[in-house]
């Protein structure tokens, strides 16, 4: 059975919706989507570090549409692991675990890897929204489209725009 590594933030959890919510709560306005294209989260949101260190940021992030059903199927067809960088924001450790338990209860605690660098992770396939995580990976790589990566050529990575495309690419037809 192939080992599939799936990122959490920006792939399973809609952190951009959270950034928009926090920005609206703080500033009373939201940037147009077109203004986010090609910018890192830190470039796009002035107070991103405040947001991600706020209680509830990770715990209350919306689920990416279509991800739960596809993940249930992937869990039956792959040795599936959720791998999420969490050490930079220590508050996120507990919130990310709780979020996964709430939205993906079919995953066991043994399938959750909360880490610092993903460079130590090995598997056959990695699904992530950041080039920094995909570029070093030795297996097949799938780039999940998010505003920060939309203006970049995916290079050797296969780009998907949503969970319907993930299903088409990774599940039997």
UniProtKB/TrEMBL annotation:
It holds the Pfam family NT5C. It comes from the Bacteria. The active site is at residues 7, 9. One of its GO terms (molecular function) is 5'-nucleotidase activity. GO terms for biological process: pyrimidine deoxyribonucleotide catabolic process. Belongs to the 5'(3')-deoxyribonucleotidase family. This is 5'-nucleotidase. It comes from Niabella soli DSM 19437.
């Amino acid at each position: 059975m192939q080992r599939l590594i799936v990122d959490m933030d920006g792939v399973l959890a809609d952190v951009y919706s959270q950034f928009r919510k926090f920005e609206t709560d703080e500033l009373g306005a939201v940037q147009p989507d077109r203004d986010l294209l090609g910018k890192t989260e830190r470039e796009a949101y002035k107070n991103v570090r405040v947001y991600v260190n706020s209680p509830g940021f990770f715990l209350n992030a919306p689920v990416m549409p279509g991800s739960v059903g596809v993940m249930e199927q992937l869990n039956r067809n792959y040795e599936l692991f959720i791998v999420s960088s969490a050490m930079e924001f220590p508050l996120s450790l507990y919130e990310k675990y709780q979020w996964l338990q709430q939205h993906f209860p079919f995953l066991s605690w043994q399938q959750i890897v909360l880490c610092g660098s993903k460079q130590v992770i090995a598997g056959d396939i990695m699904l992530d929204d950041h080039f920094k995580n995909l570029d070093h990976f030795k297996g097949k790589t799938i780039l999940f489209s998010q505003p920060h990566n939309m203006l970049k050529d995916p290079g050797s990575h296969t780009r998907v725009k949503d969970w319907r495309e993930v299903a088409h690419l990774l599940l039997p037809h």
